[in-house]
Amino acid sequence: MKLNQYLDVAPEVAEAIAHNKPVVALESTIISHGMPYPQNVETALKVEEIIRENGAVPATIAVIGGRLKAGCSRDDIEVLGKKGHDVAKASRRDLAVLVARGEDGATTVTTTMIIAHMAGIRVFATGGIGGVHRGAETTMDISADLEELAHTPVMVVCAGAKSILDLGLTLEYLETHGVPVIGYGTKELPAFYTRKSGFAVDYEIDTPAELARAFHVQQELGLGGGMLVTNPIPEAFSMDPAVINAAIDEAIAQAAARGIHGKETTPFLLAKVKELTGGDSLDSNIQLVFNNARLAARTAAELSAL
Ligand code: PSU
Ligand code: MN
User: Fold this and answer.
1) Which residues contact 106 (CB under 8 A, 6 or more apart)?
2) Could you give the CA distance from residue 182 to residue 83 in angstroms, rounded to a whole number?
3) pLDDT tens digit string along 134-175?
4) Distance between CA atoms of 196 and 159, rounded to whole angstroms?
5) Cα atoms in the 13 Å half-sphere on the side-chain side of 59
6) Does ligand 1 lie within 6 Å of residue 105's CB atom?
7) What is the pTM assigned to this prediction?
8) 196 catalytic per annotation
9) Distance between CA atoms of 134 and 52, rounded to whole angstroms?
10) Does the Cβ of 127 fall within 6 Å of ligand 1?
């Protein structure tokens, strides 16, 4: 296989891919912009461990010194976690300039999918995805994550989307672009901190084997594109909807008052929600990522067997 000249695949990841062994990609914006230091680094390393325990090889993805990395070292993860918001949040439009300049970038869902696909990785675990923001009918703020899901053949395992987004419009957008939205063990789209949103998913699937089969068939049919698997936060860690929704409404009001826009919007809202809910939302956030890592590893193992 001829790999992209800008891509470095970690030896362990390359070995697994070459032998069709399961690999799970992980994003790095969740490390730099999604959680505070040092919990971000601890979580990133623990997620890698969970993926190994469940039979797959982890590949944390980032841009380091202008190189696309499929498989970061502990040092890379430590640097991204410590630098936090000082690392560029790298979406599709940022990749060329960051690489040309030899800079670092934390990959979003979008760029993690791009680099995972370049490396030959088919399954990716994260917390939440970007989507259509509330008020997008005037701001046109729609995450590039949705467009990437439309085109790039990677399964994204998440805990649904936070209601910092307009969940109904996000589902409409995904439908238009032909992205299957699967509920793992549920008919309802989970809302990240809570197991329910009031919106239906397209299909409920209850086993990793069945998830793998659906994704495999999607690619064999030549349909291409991604698949969004939404995995509800475990009951024990889910939050009170009234508490979390009040924090989200307040965060959105503060963002509007301060004129926050563009790529700052999502990180601002995430940080504000965390601040308004104390440590509770961070604990929930960490636990749902662990839960998604387990499901992604088991699904990647099933996919390798097909
Ligand atoms: N939503 C979350 N947690 C996150 C993100 C979104 O609940 O960490 C991050 C992901 O990296 C996602 C990105 O791809 O934010 C979306 O940013 P934007 O809305 O600017 O496209
Ligand atoms: Mn945006």
Assistant:
1) 27, 28, 29, 31, 32, 33, 62, 63, 80, 87, 88, 89, 90
2) 35
3) 999 999 999 999 999 999 999 999 999 998 999 999 999 999
4) 10
5) 36
6) no
7) 0.97
8) no
9) 37
10) yes
